[in-house]
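Human: Here is a favour to ask of a fellow structure person. Comparing notes only helps if you start from a blank page. Give me a protein, with the fold worked out from its sequence. Please set it down just below, with no commentary around it:

Assistant:
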Amino acid sequence: MDKQTLSNYGWLVIVTLILAVMLALATPFGTYVGDAVVNIANGYVQSSNNAMDDDNIKANSEKFDNKFDYGAWEEPIYGTNNPKLNHSGTIPTGGEYYSRSTLRWHNAGETFPEICDGDVYYYGDYMYCYGYYWCTSCVDWTYDCGCGEGSSGWQVRVKDDSKTKYEDNILESVNNENTTSFWNAFMYCTNLIDASNIHIPSTVWDFEDAFSCCSSLTKIPEFKDLIGVPSSQEVYLGSTFYNCESLSGTIVIDITNISDIGGCFRHTNVTAIKMSNGQTHPMEADLLNTK
């Protein structure tokens, strides 16, 4: 409603109120008429207020629409812009971080400490070790075990190898460093049947023995081009599905720049592999033999 219309309403209200007073004072019937006119005037006022409210709501809505793109609120499922898969700054709820530099555990709400080889991070179904090689002999992480010296990137492994299903939220980075290794990640998860929901971070280049000896496995994760891996970095798939006896049929491995794939499907029932060029190839000897 524009200002001119509101002004006209205002004068109409004033005039009707004056007439009501005059009638009320002049005649006995004036009281009845006056009340009626006052009610009409109040109706005009309420209509004006409602109109102003509607205009304000519309104006605010248009302002919101112009300022925000609703599509921008849809969080990407995966990618480096997704904070759910890239933990840095403050340790989130459910996270536990052991630092080799501070020699103590850091819990949710604390700031991630300076990263160091051998740091450990627990989140969800997975544990991460910084420095590539996981030191399986360590029980007490409060001393320098020397694990992973000279390496970089996070290696991920399951915390419990007895589960039948695992969360898909494998982190792409922790403390501003990428997850690069699936080495032994699901090894001996003999109860795991369907792993198709598991997200492989685009920065991983080492898959050696990743699902080795998962004897019940029938469905594998999606393997596609790893856009977060430098073009100069070779990808290793040696013995990735070694001894996965229940795995069969045609497997899709849509990854380029593979360096080592020896024994990838040894002791499986896989009959063919479809590579990144879209062609399906019979199982080749180097996929079945050990390295």
